[in-house]
Specification:
The protein has about 350 residues and is of the alpha+beta class. The longest helix has 25 residues, at about 190-215. The strands form four sheets. Strands 1, 2, 3, 4, 5, 15 and 18 form a seven-stranded mixed β-sheet that branches. It is about 20% helix and about 30% strand. The relative contact order is 0.15. It is globular and about 55 Å long.
Length: about 350
């Protein structure tokens, strides 16, 4: 019986061995899908552009190619560590459940049996966030959208994306996961900064409350934050820090600061790189001696096929459209991911 039990564990999670110690691994990823719409007009201005007769001539052929491209990316993220790919993947810029259902049925990833948590928000572009999860690794217990009240005058649009909170069991361990897509920098970084600060403070307050209700529960915050790791919304509003040695209980660790300071990023604009796509974790992921999962390393996923090879934007992420011309690309963002490890007892 003990032998059979161990065999099931090996099937359940990929196992790595370092210095005679075996570890289970789990991949946690975030990816901005960039305008992942269906082809039907649902009533918003941006939605109309993404239709067969709209400005972008977004036909079924284009949609199906977009699905193929995204499935290709999802099929490869983190597979150098775990052949199952992401156990958890936060997604941004999805229009509805139809596009998610279509993507997750794609033959490249269908065998993973991905499920998802998604709520419609009142975002003026009609795009939301979702958490895609592999039920072999994660069991959802509860979830809800978190409304972000934007300060008056900070943005022309009154509504932004909700923050998604999902609580569940990662290999039996209760964790919180937050998926974010904070307000953009349209209208200028400074003018729009209060909107992102509002999102950060909203999340921080919600997390503080959770830490009282569910003490000693690990948290993962992921998303396109539309700010870099050193910006005020993250360092002051969210209160994320990059110095592991100075972290205290319930504080947040941001592993992306050094990446950003070294010039690495997940998206580019006017030959300047930004690292908006971040996965931030609570302090309790950092103890490598614990019985549960711990943080091992972080990566920006950018294989050659995700990179523009020609023209003015050579070296940038190969985006879906160049203006209104279909570019046969993937997204204007690179995905990011974390590797979590857990000792095999």
């Amino acid at each position: 019986m003990p032998k059979a039990g161990f065999f099931l564990v090996v099937l359940f999670l990929s196992v790595k061995t370092f210095a005679q110690q075996s570890y289970k691994s789990a991949i946690v990823s975030f990816y901005n899908f960039e305008n992942f719409y269906d082809t039907i007009f649902h009533g918003s201005n941006d939605d109309e552009a993404f239709t067969p007769h709209g400005a972008k001539a977004y036909t079924s052929a284009v949609f199906n190619d977009k699905v193929q491209k995204l499935a290709t990316v999802l099929s490869q993220i983190g597979t150098d560590v775990n052949p199952d790919g992401p156990a958890l993947l936060g997604a941004a810029e999805i229009e509805n459940q139809f596009v998610l259902d279509t993507l997750l049925k794609h033959p490249l990833i269908a065998k993973r049996n991905y499920k998802y948590v998604h709520y419609n928000s009142r975002d003026f572009r009609g795009v939301d966030v979702a958490l895609i999860y592999n039920p072999k690794y994660f069991k959802v217990e509860r979830s809800r959208p978190i409304y972000v009240q934007l300060p008056q005058g900070s943005k022309t649009a009154f509504f932004t994306r909700d923050i998604l909170w999902v609580q569940g069991l990662l290999d039996g361990e209760k964790i919180n996961v937050f998926v974010n897509h904070w307000p953009s920098r349209s209208g200028g970084e400074k003018r729009s900064e209060p909107a992102r600060m509002a999102a950060a403070v909203t999340l921080r307050k919600f997390l503080d409350s959770l830490n009282i209700i569910y003490p000693n529960t690990k948290s993962i915050i992921m998303g396109d934050l539309n700010d870099d790791p050193v910006n005020n919304s993250i360092t002051i509003g969210l209160q994320a820090k990059d110095d592991i040695k100075k972290l205290k209980t319930d504080e947040l660790y941001n592993p992306w600061v050094d990446y950003y300071k070294s010039g690495l990023g997940t998206l580019a604009y006017q030959d300047s790189w930004s690292l908006f796509d971040q996965i931030i974790i609570s302090q309790d992921w950092l103890d490598k001696k614990q019985a549960g999962f711990f943080y091992y390393k972080s990566h920006v996923f950018k294989p050659e096929f995700l990179i523009e090879n020609f023209g003015q934007y050579k070296g940038y992420p190969k985006r879906t459209y160049s203006g209104d011309v279909y570019n046969y690309g993937y997204s204007d963002h690179f995905p990011t991911y974390l590797v979590l490890l857990k000792k095999v007892q």
